[in-house]
């Protein structure tokens, strides 16, 4: 478990669309744009599955994923890595559905991916590129 810094939390909160990467068990990569990718605690991100196909299949085979954080309003860029748990019922799932319905009524909110943050890496070009930050 890794806790994001205040600067990292601020950067993640400014993301409108978050690129989320997964890989199948055989290593085949997949990356998708996610509109609901929200930090819910210092070490946990909620990712909402509205229309996932390959991403969800990958996470069922291989629970590792990464979120790329960069944008015009963000200083620098970094990659958050972690492990996923897929939730399709219960209080946490219902809380997520309520959040989605308040922001975008009509989206299916089929499942909740709970990402536990394990690592954060530098993504800016230069000598520090790829270095572990947390």
Quick structural overview:
22% of the residues lie in helices and 38% in strands. It has 3 helices and 7 strands; from the N terminus they run αββββαββαβ.
Describe the structure.
InterPro entries: Pyridox_Oxase_N, Split_barrel_FMN-bd. This is Pyridoxamine 5'-phosphate oxidase-related FMN-binding. The chain is an alpha+beta fold and 134 residues long. It has one domain: Pnp Oxidase, Chain A (Roll), CATH 2.30.110. 22% of the residues lie in helices and 38% in strands. The protein has a 7-stranded antiparallel sheet with strand order 2-1-5-6-7-4-3. The model has no long low-confidence stretch (mean pLDDT 95).
Any chance you could write out the topology, listing elements then pairs?
Blueprint: H1 6-13, E1 18-23, E2 29-34, E3 37-41, E4 44-49, H2 54-61, E5 64-69, E6 78-87, H3 91-103, E7 111-122
Key features of this structure:
Pnp Oxidase, Chain A, Pyridox_Oxase_N, Pyridoxamine 5'-phosphate oxidase-related FMN-binding, Split_barrel_FMN-bd, 134 residues, alpha+beta, seven-stranded antiparallel sheet
Total beta strand runs: 7
Q: How are strands sequenced across the largest beta sheet?
A: 2-1-5-6-7-4-3
CATH uppermost class: Mainly Beta
The multimeric state of the shown protein is: single chain
Total domain units: 1
Give the terminus-to-terminus CA distance: 10 Å
Approximate helicity band: 10-25%
Assign the structural class, choosing from mainly alpha, mainly beta, alpha/beta, alpha+beta, or little secondary structure. alpha+beta
- Given the C-alpha coordinates, what overall shape results? globular
Biggest sheet, open or closed, and with what strands and sense?
A: 7 strands, antiparallel
Organism: Methanosphaerula palustris (strain ATCC BAA-1556 / DSM 19958 / E1-9c)
Protein name: Pyridoxamine 5'-phosphate oxidase-related FMN-binding
Domain Pyridoxamine 5'-phosphate oxidase N-terminal: 4-121
InterPro entries: Pyridox_Oxase_N (IPR011576), Split_barrel_FMN-bd (IPR012349)
